[in-house]
């Protein structure tokens, strides 16, 4: 048994689980079975920490700096905190990973095939499977590669701000080129020129499945690359959740937090560029196809609303690109199949299903109905933007004069929690706004089929799951202060309902 490094009663620096921040803690004891220390924080929170999450107070600063550069850093094979605690549940997490690895691509295939049917109900029996031959198309693959390369070139252009990410466990802050809005503008110009030169965007509609398959293959290759890349990462570069030792699970969740090729950040790029901008391009292509197929002078009102609403969402995301650096995905999640597939396939090929559906299933809207839907979208957008901005401004500068009248709860980490404004209404007002917007994206498609409502259903599940994941993270981070926040703000997403 290794000797116990820190003694009972000793004051040391302990890392808050799930964060890169260290606080002074007192060692209460050591459990040789789990090889963990029980420590107590100044606010009275007691936690179990592994040795690598503890540093001696004296050498804390110098050590954290030198360790990040030391050639003798622990390799990925070393035991991580998550590894020791997950042993018993490894089998079920591996089964879960196999399930998702198979289910997610199959589900996308199913929905795209449904979209082509006259009666595209999600509760229908699966349509006949197309032949393997018809799924693969060199040209589609080439277009997807070209698209990603084009977006990558725009990303590396030295245009726009270099923003700093949140501090990593080493204390280091990575730099990100936040020029997404510029990339969208250049792309729009390039698409306009291409259309003017005779490029036929109906290709996207006619080869939707082949394009999705191409994007899927690229996401698999990318995930394999990231998995291989993570074998050379040291323990501080690994995400806490994707390092279980089970290949399927780690491949799915992603082992490395920020895989990079030089300064090119794969996770940030994939989350913000090819999929998100591709979503707008595909929507636009669906509007063009609708006009051509039905000999219209302009797209239908429903198609225009879906296009404009979702474009506004993407524009907003890219305009506020820096704010992405504080999201859960960027701060805590590894980059593996789940995010690579989510960014490159799920977003562009399922978030566009409403526009895809409308091409062959027109849904005329009366002016009052259209006006009501626009109003709903604006309400949702207002809540989403206001609440996200409140939190981002507060996190960037808690003493910002715009927030001087806000009530807050201090926490032991030094950060506070907002308890007035939107964050005093529910614990996730940004999710509330996002859900209202999702509703306004489905409404223009009417109620005849469930397919255009798929996004709404999926989004409720995603956000409820995300909310509970964030709850446990915050509980671990903020301890008793989080309990107080939950008492002050009892509802999670929808006031008086949930
Ligand atoms: N369209 C899509 O597919 C998706 C969209 N989204 C959207 O992306 C955005 C980001 O979402 P996500 O990363 O999940 O989560 P949030 O942006 O809501 O971030 C949650 C974090 O906010 C901080 N926080 C929580 N409560 C408070 C408070 N009272 N005061 C101050 N800070 C607080 C905590 O972090 P800390 O204290 O450490 O700062 C918490 O971990 C959301 O608007 C969401 O709707 C998300 C997923 C999918
Ligand atoms: C494949 C899985 C079932 C789910 C994958 C989830 C991902 C598609 C989403 C996880 C978090 C996301 C965020 C966004 C897009 C979807 C994913 C990648 C935004 C970038 C959308 C625009 C917003 O302004 C910010 C969002 C951050 C989170």
From TrEMBL:
A GO cellular component annotation in the UniProt record: nuclear inner membrane
Basic residues composition bias: residue spans: 64-77
Protein's UniProt keywords contain Nucleus: yes
First and last residue of the signal peptide: none
Stored PANTHER family: DELTA(14)-STEROL REDUCTASE, DELTA(14)-STEROL REDUCTASE LBR
Boundaries of every Tudor domain copy: 4-62
Protein name: Delta(14)-sterol reductase LBR
SUPFAM superfamilies (UniProt xref): Tudor/PWWP/MBT (SSF63748)
Reaction(s) the record says it catalyses: 4,4-dimethyl-8,14-cholestadien-3beta-ol + NADPH + H(+) = 4,4-dimethyl-5alpha-cholest-8-en-3beta-ol + NADP(+); 5alpha-cholest-8,14-dien-3beta-ol + NADPH + H(+) = 5alpha-cholest-8-en-3beta-ol + NADP(+); 4,4-dimethyl-5alpha-cholesta-8,24-dien-3beta-ol + NADP(+) = 4,4-dimethyl-5alpha-cholesta-8,14,24-trien-3beta-ol + NADPH + H(+)
Transmembrane segments: 95-115, 135-157, 178-196, 208-228, 335-359, 365-384, 405-426, 446-465
InterPro entries given in the database record: ERG24_DHCR-like, Lamin-B_rcpt_of_tudor, Sterol_reductase_CS, Tudor
Bias-annotated ranges (Low complexity): 78-87
Chain segments carrying region Disordered: 58-89
Pathway terms, separated by semicolons: Steroid biosynthesis; cholesterol biosynthesis
Name of the encoding gene: lbr
Family: Belongs to the ERG4/ERG24 family.
Membrane topology listed for this record: Multi-pass membrane protein
GO molecular function, one term: Delta14-sterol reductase activity
Localization, UniProt: Cytoplasm; Endoplasmic reticulum membrane; Nucleus inner membrane
Organism: Gouania willdenowi
